[in-house]
Amino acid sequence: MAIEDDVLVVGGGLAGATAALAAVERDVRVRLVSHKQSTLRHASGLIDVLGYTPAGEGPLSDPFPALADLPEGHPYERVGAEAVRDALAFFDGIAGDAYAGAHTDANALVPTHGGTVKPTARYPAATAAGLASDDRDALLVGFGTLPDFEAPLAAAHLEGAGVPFAARGVTVRFPGIERDDAKVTRYAHLLDRDERVETAAGESTARTALAETVRPHLEGESRVGFPAVLGDDRADAVRADLADRLGVDVFEVPMGPPSLPGLRLEDLLFDALSDAGVRVTTGVPVVDYETGAHGAGSSGPARIDRVTVDRNGSEVPHSADQYVLATGGLVGKGVESDRERVSEPVFDCHVPHPADRYDWFVDDVFGDQPYARFGLPVDRDLRPLDADDALEFANLRAAGAVLGGHDFAAEKSGSGVSLATGYVAGRRAAEGCR
Amino acid sequence: MSDAERPTDDSGDEFEPIEVFPEAGETDLRPGADDCYKCSTCDTECPVAEVDDEFPGPKFQGPEQWRLKRQDDHDIDESVMKCSNCMRCDSACPSDVPLSQMHNTARAEYVEENVSKFSREYWRNRMLANYRRLAPLGAMFPRTANFVTGLSATRWLGEKLLGIAGERELPEFATETFREWWTKRGGARVENSDKRIAYFHGCYSNYNTPEVAKALVRVYEHFGYEIMVPEQDCSGTPMFANGMLEDARRAAETNVRELAAAIDDGADVVASCSSCSMSLRQEYPELFDFEDTEAVAENTWDAVEYLRVHEDLETELEGTAVGEEFDDFAYHAPCHARNQGLDGQTVELLGLIDGVEAHDVGDSCSGISGTYGWKAENYETSMAIGAEMFDHMDDADATAGLTECPTCSMQMEHGTGYEITHTLEVLAAALVGDGADATGANATGARAE
């Protein structure tokens, strides 16, 4: 007996979750299988559509006009600009008040922990008071035990980038944390639970102690930015509490990995999956597949009949009518490479790449790296294509970073591609169910 | 990466690897250290690091500590004993670093080299880890044992003498163990050479909650299975967590031998406790190399999952109902079930039964982690980790709890006062209980495909 569903989504990141949510809207039975924690934990939590063109022009003030000029094969070109808008609207419906930016097509400019400014289409509510287009002066507060955010340096970088406000940075001690190697989840937990902490002035609660630590450093700024560790489950309450005590707006600056805004986005998506009735199986990989009858005649593409999920050694068959592959790119391990070739490990779909390993990269680290675009070629229905441009399978679609033809890190298009292609793949999969 | 993709060295040319490390013959953990690219995803999943700054997290305990050890003058850091062996880091790591294996190995080395065999900690941990050795004494005089362990004086002494958390109530012993019941009943009531399972009941459902084991028997006989109950020892889970690898090895040797013999007789192994199935499936092959270790791992299943794959459990459950004995549940998926891809299973299946609903209380760890939360020095940490689960249980639309792990159930009860049930008990009530259609027995013996 296989475990049966109508649509099976492989992958639990932004693309996979979006695909599952888009499919389940159409009243079919959907299951999402994911192996390891997704790269959302490495992600800023921002939802970018397009910050720079593939030629490097930017930052773009409005991503939408640029979508029409993208090269053939780019994921956005495959699904079309309208699908990008639909997917953003779909995301807005899921995220509700947790995200902002839906009021305009224009990119927002969000200061990062390095003091750079990133163009993005949607940003967490926690970041809203920190936008670089806002002309209110800002105090940035860093913690000595959290060297990933050097507040004075970030402030200097921001001013150097020409932001329309004065930025100042200070470094303070985080009350309740002594050690240099405390995890970001520890900071968040202290504030979430408002634990008792020891301060120089005696015992206090974590939020009060943090506000009192920052207060003497305020010099009239009306907003204060912290590294993005202000709570996890109760982040809104933590921020409101700090703002209340300090009498200023409080915002978070997105950090590098591991990233709490990415974790919160993951929680938001998985709560939505649970509410929508998507069946979720985590912690186990899909390791194999079987094909059934071919489609039209014997010349058509094969249909995937079932996949094998490896559960600590036991092989559990899962079958579905339609499949979505959303396993991520090189970092998420949806695309793998060894010394011989670049491959897609689940269905062994074709990944175009030069035969010679030395042509996969260029010497300039920040140059135009060929490997950054490695991934699956797909038709306009997001179905993977083989080396002869024929369909790999009749009932498989791919979404997110597993797709080739775009360099999401350079373009600042990662979340947008995952959303748009996840949305289209999920909806088409549900429509394709027999 | 699956086993199927692991590159094998089958090239014909003569390749002589260079011996870099002295410990050839031991498990080589170097690939684990090399595969770690420091993304720190494991650290965000660690329930201990979230409540205790003194714990440096799984990335340090595994790959980084392994590297430090290359320098001869470094001992294993004592903080490894703060790891609760929940194994959440395993299913976090995008690079398949065998974190829990590295932790288990490091912990065993720490206990071997740095813990005095004359210390209170050592004997307390040994006693907790070897519950299987003490339980028979309690089971001999269950009422006396329950009376004595329930006394506040006993708990006070336990804390003072041994360092066992005085806040906790020791689990009650059943007046009749599962194995006693099984023998009295005359063993299996269904004979079927085509459908056999060997039941690994573990310690807890034998000595403390035989109702769970009996529920498994009723459910499996309903589906026409011949049940074998082989000789068995503890799965080893509490021993790994206490760095007592030699004790675990002895127990594993018995289990692998007996279960492999049952597999030879045509049985598949099923376990009702998620830590037992985890141990047989993952930790045995990682830590031991007895003959048949792999065969046992590959043929071991979670008891509910097995029926889902080998029978049409969903169709069988549709239209069943349970009566007044069960109401809605606050369901907690144990970490060790989560790591086996079983997190959604119970909620999905209970949704098919009329009159009962399971509300998932989220993906936090219960915090007790077997013997971990029983130690006086970990009690506070254990309850801090559990706080999120307690909150969600309070918020859930239910006043009873449901889980598949014995110690998670103790923690759930301890934190909320709810009565806790095992999923198999609900399935038994639906399939063969008062609310079930008794004529629906699928005793044809044909294996559904």
From TrEMBL, chain A:
Signal peptide limits? none
Name the InterPro entries for this protein: FAD-dep_OxRdtase_2_FAD-bd, FAD-oxidoreductase_2, FAD/NAD-bd_sf, G3P_DH_GlpB_su
Q: Name one GO cellular component term.
A: glycerol-3-phosphate dehydrogenase (FAD) complex
The record ties this protein, via Gene3D superfamilies, to: FAD/NAD(P)-binding domain (3.50.50.60)
Question: What molecular functions are annotated in GO for this chain?
Answer: glycerol-3-phosphate dehydrogenase (quinone) activity
Q: Does the keyword Flavoprotein apply?
A: yes
One Pfam short name = FAD_binding_2
Domain of life of the organism in this record?
A: Archaea
Q: Which UniProt keyword terms apply here?
A: Flavoprotein, FMN, Oxidoreductase
Q: Which residue numbers delimit the FAD-dependent oxidoreductase 2 FAD-binding domain?
A: 6-417
Name the SUPFAM superfamilies for this protein.
FAD/NAD(P)-binding domain
Q: Which PANTHER family match?
A: ANAEROBIC GLYCEROL-3-PHOSPHATE DEHYDROGENASE SUBUNIT B, FUMARATE REDUCTASE
**What's the name of the protein?**
Anaerobic glycerol-3-phosphate dehydrogenase subunit B
Organism taxonomic ancestry: Archaea, Methanobacteriati, Methanobacteriota, Stenosarchaea group, Halobacteria
TrEMBL record, chain B:
Q: What is the organism of origin for this protein?
A: Natrinema saccharevitans
From the UniProt entry, list the residue stretches annotated as the region Disordered: 1-29
**Cited Gene3D superfamilies:** 1.20.1050.140, Alpha-helical ferredoxin
User: What biological process terms from GO does the record include?
Assistant: anaerobic respiration
| Record domain 4Fe-4S ferredoxin-type: where | 72-105
Any one GO MF term held by the record is: metal ion binding
Single GO cellular component annotation? membrane
* Name under which the protein is recorded: sn-glycerol-3-phosphate dehydrogenase subunit C
Q: Does the keyword DNA-binding apply?
A: no
- List UniProt keywords, sorted A-Z: 4Fe-4S, Iron, Iron-sulfur, Metal-binding, Repeat
